[in-house]
Amino acid sequence: MPQPPLNLSRPPSFSPPAAPRPAASNNNRSTSGSGPVANLPNRPDPVGELRFRVLLPGVDLGRFRECTGLAAEIECKDYNEGGVNDRVHKLPTRMKYPNLVLKRGVTYEDALLKWLWKTQRETHRIAVTVSLMGQDGEAVRSWSFAEAFPIKWTGPNMNAGSTTIATETLEIVHAGLQMQAGA
């Protein structure tokens, strides 16, 4: 059975390709012109995670290489309603926060260990603030950890064949966090 010939003509709804776009300007955030994009606000670019500072009242902890534990999670409880077999209700219960973990290279400064030893004798809960810094040195966003105190310090791993920097880690427990933009 012979096949029908191929139809190479353009379909009725075909439109020729659009004209090439103009070259991008140096200011890729510009919203000049007309249309829906022109009505958008001029938003700043996201900042890198490499600039941050950790503040404790009355304690100079120095600089840190890494800070983890900036998270919050709402725990949910499953509720199986009788007669409703197509889903399970999810009910929010309480907020859950991981511990704040600070890592840095070992130096002559010993404020981390002093804070840990002091907590062993007398638990003094304080507010710890972590600020993400922009290129201009101003805080872009800050997180404040309420009623914080250290619970674990980990020293460096000693290895004669290693060329990595010796690091120490401090783990801090807290009662919750609050976020503040542009602090």
The number of strands is 9
Rg (C-alpha, Å): 28 Å
At CATH level 2, the architecture of the domain at 52-70 and 97-181 is Roll
CATH superfamily of the domain at 52-70 and 97-181: Hcp1-like
Major sheet: size, sense and barrel closure? 7 strands, antiparallel
Ranges with pLDDT <50 over ≥5 residues?
6-16, 21-31
Query: Helical segment tally?
Result: 1
Structure description:
The N and C termini lie far apart (77 Å). This protein has a domain at 52-70 and 97-181: Hcp1-like (Pnp Oxidase, Chain A). The chain is mostly beta strands. The model is unreliable at 6-16 and 21-31 (pLDDT under 50). It has one helix at residues 111-121, and strands at residues 52-55, 66-68, 73-79, 89-96, 100-105, 126-133, 139-154, 167-173, 177-181. The strands form 2 sheets. Strands 1, 2, 5, 6, 7, 8 and 9 form a 7-stranded antiparallel sheet that branches. A two-stranded antiparallel ribbon has the order 3-4. Helix content is 6%, strand content 35%.
Helix and strand topology:
Elements: E1 52-55, E2 66-68, E3 73-79, E4 89-96, E5 100-105, H1 111-121, E6 126-133, E7 139-154, E8 167-173, E9 177-181
Antiparallel strand pairs: 1-6, 2-5, 3-4, 5-8, 6-7, 7-8, 7-9
